[in-house]
Amino acid sequence: MTDTAIQTRQREIASEHLLFKLIEYVEDRHPGLLDFLEQSLDHLGDPADDASKDDAGVRAIAQRMITGARRQGTD
Predict the structure, then answer these.
(1) Which domain holds residue 52?
(2) Cα–Cα distance between 73 and 27 in angstroms, integer?
């Protein structure tokens, strides 16, 4: 694996963690954020313009993140 690929993976892991914690924090203080995010998924898509384009795949990942945030709550 290249250094660039490793750094990209590490950045993705760190960003996802911070995003989850931010979502949990805001939802705890302002209930309804997760519902709002879930309702926005119809507008989410993959910007790729080649065979790798997968709107449903992007939406599924976002839905799993929302579901995980609902389950975990704040600790």
Answers:
(1) 3-72
(2) 8
pTM above 0.85, yes or no: no
> Residue 59 burial (CB < 10 Å; 0-12/13-18/19+)?
middle
Each of the 75 residues of the chain gets a pLDDT tens digit; together they read 899 999 999 999 999 999 989 998 999 999 999 999 999 999 999 999 999 999 999 999 999 989 988 887 655
Domain count, the chain: 1
Tokens of residue 23, six digits? 């979502």
The residue type of 27 is E
